[in-house]
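Backbone geometry:

***
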Amino acid sequence: MFKLTNLRKSGFILPAPVWIALLLQSSLLISCADNKRDPGSTATAKNEFKMNCVTLTKAQMQAWVDSGWTKPGSPGRIKTLLLQFTTLDAGGIKSNMQLTAYPGSSVTEVKLTGNTLLAIDNSCPAKTFSGRLILANNETNIDSLNLVKPDGTLRNFDFIRFIPQQYSINSAYITFRVEIVTDGKVEGTAPSGTYPCPPYCCPPDCQE
């Protein structure tokens, strides 16, 4: 039977140069293995947040009209659009953020059953944000969009496009420019865009 020999007892000692060579070889092997596992280990990850434009279609608003919420003189007539940041996949939150829209008579009295998800619009470039961000609810006045006729029906348009931007008063907040698209072309823009709410709920604090 083969028997291992105790090198210490046998008096066999490896010379110092051999030990050094073995140590260097081991270090090189470990280094190569690490490089194969993580080729980008020396790269600095960018802490950025990107958001695309999102759209609210005429069909989505028509559902509110059909519910009687735009009827003139109605006590619960919707006047405000409350927008809430939403992601359908937390793993891609830095690039797939959307908005959920709630119509309401005020920012504190919204139609929960009227909530609708705004689709991502890839036709416009994503906006990149970095540093301190506050993802507050946003609010805009429905009448300022000039899309609801005096009789409560809708004017002709394709969709409303919400374009992310930094708020002019406090750049930590993400707000939105608002475009009205009709027959595939930008017909106009809302004069004030959206406000972060709180703290700049309009009314009473209408600033821009």
In short: Residues 149 and 155 are 6 Å apart (CA to CA).
